[in-house]
Every structure is written in C-alpha cells, then in structure tokens.
Amino acid sequence: MRWSSLVVVALVSCADEELGVVYAGERMPVIDMHLHPGDWDSIPPETQEFLSSRFPFPIDLRPDKAAGGVLSPAGILDEMDRAGVSVGTLLAIYAPRTVGIAANEDVIADVAHDPRRFTGWRACASIAGTRTGPSSWRRCAWR
Description:
single chain, 143 residues, alpha/beta, 6 helices, disordered N terminus
C-alpha cells in the first residue's frame, strides 16, 4: 500500500504544472501578446552598451550570454513556463538603430520551435520613400 502511494506521489510531482490562472474556479489560459525574440549580435552596439550597464554584477561580465538566455525560443519558453503563460506571441521587429532586427524569417523559425506555444506576427518596415498601404500589408501576412 505504501509503495503504490509513493509511486503515485512521484508521478504527480514529475508532471508538468498546468499553465494559466484559476479565475472563479476555472483554469484559463494566459496569452502574452508582446514577446521579442532575437539575438544579442543583432542589437546595435550603443543599445548593447546601454542594456549591459543595467545588468547587475556578474551578469554584466557576459551580457551576450544573459540576453541569449531570454531571447532564444528555449529561453522564452522557460520564462513563459515560470510565469504560467500558455501561449506567447513573438513579434518580428525592424528597428536597426535602436533595438535591432528580429527578421520575419527568424520569427517563423522560432514559432516552429514549439507551434503549440508560440504564434508570430511579422514586421512591416515603413521606410522613407516607400508606399505603405494594403498592397504592402499583404506582403507581411503569414502564408
């Protein structure tokens, strides 16, 4: 009798925690609609310096490692799991002078890392001298 109870407790304790929140007695999913994946190397040097200056010691010694841990799909999933987030929306970004570039193709690859947990939005760059409108928006839609 004791062994069977111990085995059940062990199996339950190894199971994944349910994601989401309980509201009014019902578990509801949590969706984070604004996540930026990326790569430390795609962040402009001035922004890297700014971000590094905000990291505490000893993280500031290897800011590229710290950033990689939260910008990669695996790192984002770890953060989502710790927060109980069920689904995360990864956003491509084109801001080469400020925070860098997370290309549409990179977001597509990141979503493929776990399509049950990730969804993605493409970026449409509005560059001076180009026309924007419905015809350019079509290029930005997922296919």
